[in-house]
Amino acid sequence: MIDSRLTPLVERFSSSGVEQIAGSRMTYHWSYEAPLGALTFNDSGASSGPAKESRVAVSGDLVIDDQKGFELSQQSRLTQAAGTKTLSSLLETAHGSCREQR
Questions:
Q1: What's the pLDDT tens digit per position in 21-44?
Q2: Mode of pairing for the β-strands spanning 25-39 and 11-21
Q3: Which of 3, 53, 63, 66 is nearest to 29 (CA)?
Q4: What would the pLDDT profile of 47-92 be if each residue is shown by its tens digit?
Q5: What is the DSSP pairing of strand 52-65 with strand 11-21?
Q6: Distance (Å, whole) CA 55 – CA 33
Q7: Fewest Cβ atoms closer than 10 Å to its Cβ: which of 8, 30, 72, 74?
Q8: How many CB atoms lie within 10 A of CB 56?
Q9: In angstroms, rounded to a whole number, what is the distance separating the alpha carbons of residues 53 and 9?
Q10: For residue 87, what pLDDT is reported?
Q11: CA–CA gap between residue 3 and residue 9 (Å, rounded)
Q12: Quick one: CA torsion of 82, 86, 88, 89, rounded to 10 degrees?
């Protein structure tokens, strides 16, 4: 799992583990949720209401190919704890190459 400030708060962690695909690619999938506590939201310029409990749901994929190139994708979704409406979302992507260290 990619380490972040959310790591100590993680609940419902799920991982595929490393999957080998046809000997040429390794894939790793993960997802988790984390409580963020009470946040105050400002809806469409109106004055902010009372603080409400919030959660973040994160899912990601890491693929490493046989040439040591990688692609990373992680999506985070912020919701009120009791709701399903997405208040904010973030899609992070990266790609590059890995260097072996010994």
A1: 767 888 888 888 888 878 776 666
A2: antiparallel
A3: 63
A4: 566 777 888 888 999 998 888 899 999 999 988 877 777 888 999 9
A5: unpaired
A6: 7
A7: 8
A8: 19
A9: 14
A10: 83
A11: 11
A12: 120
pTM to 2 decimals? 0.71
Our separate counts of H helices and E strands in the chain read 0, 5
CA 35 vs. chain centroid, Å, equals: 13
d(CA 85, CA 78): 9
Three-state SS at 9: helix
- d(Cα 38, Cα 15) in Å, to the nearest integer? 28
Amino acid at 16: S
Distance of CA 59 to the CA centre of its chain: 4
